[in-house]
Amino acid sequence: MAEFAILGILGIFALPFLLLTLFWAIYGIAMPLMFIWGMLTSGRNLDKMIEETNARERSTRATLGRDPLSTVDRWMVRSDVTNSGLIYASGVFGPSYWQLMIAWVNNLTGGSVTVFQKVISAGRAEVMQRLRENAIEAGWDDVVNVRIDTADMTPQSSQRGRIRGVEVFAYGTGIKYS
Amino acid sequence: MEQVVNGILVVNTETIPGKMITETLGVVSGSTVRAKHLGKDIFAGLKNIVGGELAQYTELLQESRQEAVGRMVADAMSIGATAVVNVRFATSAITAGAAELFAYGTAVKYE
C-alpha cells in the first residue's frame, strides 16, 4: 500500500514534465510539416483573403453608393445629427515562417520587402471592411474621424515562443442622421 | 446601437455631433492586461507558422478593449460626467500572449 502511495506522489510531480516533453515531441514533428504546409499555401491564402475582402468592400460600396468611412475631424456640417457613438474593429495578422524567410532574403538585397507590405495592407483592408460592417450592423449612417492604429504584437523582451504579428485596429465615431 | 455605455456617451470626435458641451471635467482613462490560456497560445503559435489571421489574439484584444473602455466609462461616471469625447487607444505587448490595452479620453458634461 505504501509503495502505491509513493508512486502516486511521484506521478503527480512527474506529470507536468511528462506532458511538457510530450508537447515538445509533438511540436518537433508538427513544426516542419506546418512549415512546408505554410510554404505551399500561405501565398495563395493571402491572395484569397485579399480577393475576398475586396469583394465584400465592393458589395458594401454598391449597396450604400459611397464609402461610409471618412477621416475628417469635424463631423459633416449637417444639423440633423441625432445620435453618435464609438465603434471599433480589430484583427491580428502575421506572416508565415516561409514569408519571414523570403523577407529575410529581401532584406539582404535591400529594396522593398513586398511580402510584409502585402500581409499588413491585406490586414488593414480587412479591418476597415469589418469597421464598415460593424457600422452598418449597428445602424450608423456614417463613420467620421476614423483612425487606424498598428501595434506590433511581438514583444522585444521574450526570445522564445514569440508571436510574429501585427495588430491592426480601426476606430471611429458612428453618426446617425434623422 | 451601443453608443451609450452605462449611460455615458462615448465618441472619438472633439465635439459631440448635434450636442453642446457645457463643462469639461478632465482626463479619464482605463487600462487592462489580459492573457489567453496556454492552449490558445499554443494554437496561435502553430497558426503563426502557417501565417494569416490569428483569431485567438484578435478575440483577446477585442475582449481587452471592451474591458478598458468599460473601466474608462466607470472612471467618467465616478466624477459625474455624461460623456467622454476624443477617445484614444494605445496597445502594447508586454510578453508573448499578454497585451496591455489603454483607453483614454476627456470627460465632459453636455446638454
Summarize the structure.
The complex is a heterodimer of chains A (178) and B (111). By secondary structure, chain A is of the alpha+beta class.
Unreliable runs of chain B:
none
- What general outline of chain B do the C-alpha atoms trace? elongated
Return the string of H and E elements of chain A. HEHHEE
Question: From the helix content, strand content and strand pairing of chain B, which structural class follows?
Answer: alpha+beta
Q: How many discrete domains of chain A?
A: 1
* Overall form of chain A: extended
Into which percent range does the helicity of residues of chain B fall?
A: 25-40%
Strand fraction band of chain B?
Answer: 35-45%
* Largest interface, C-beta within 8 A: A-B, 64 and 43 residues
Helix-strand makeup class of chain A: alpha+beta
How much β-strand is present in the residues of chain A?
A: 15-25%
- Count of distinct strands of chain B: 6
Oligomer: heterodimer
The main pleated sheet of chain B reads as: 5 strands, mixed
What is the number of helical segments of chain A per DSSP (H or I, 4+ residues)? 3
Q: What characteristics describe this protein?
A:
heterodimer, A: about 180 residues, alpha+beta, Translation Initiation Factor IF3, three-stranded antiparallel β-sheet, 3 helices, about 55% helix, B: about 110 residues, five-stranded mixed β-sheet, 2 helices, about 35% helix, about 45% strand
What would you note in describing this structure?
The complex is a heterodimer of chains A (178) and B (111). Chain A has 178 residues and is an alpha+beta fold. Chain A has a single domain (2-177), classed as Hypothetical protein apc22750. Chain B (Translation Initiation Factor IF3, 2-Layer Sandwich). Helix content of chain A is 57%, strand content 21%. Chain A is built from 3 helices and 3 strands, in the order H-E-H-H-E-E. In chain A, helix 1 (2-64) crosses helix 3. The longest helix of chain A is centred in the N-terminal third of the chain and has 63 residues, at 2-64. The N and C termini of chain A lie far apart (80 Å). A 5-stranded mixed beta sheet of chain B has the order 1-2-5-6-3. In chain B, a hairpin with a 2-residue loop joins strand 5 (83-95) and strand 6. The radius of gyration of chain B is 17 Å and the shape is elongated. Chain B has 2 helices and 6 strands; from the N terminus they run βββαβαββ. Chain B has one domain. Chain B has helices at residues 38-50, 55-78, and strands at residues 4-5, 8-10, 21-35, 52-53, 83-95, 98-110. Chain B has 111 residues and is α+β, with helices and mostly antiparallel strands. Classes of the chains: A alpha+beta (178), B alpha+beta (111). Chains A and B meet through helix 1, strand 1, helix 2, helix 3 and strand 2 of A and helix 1, strand 4, helix 2 and strand 5 of B. Strand 1 of chain A pairs antiparallel with strand 4 of chain B.
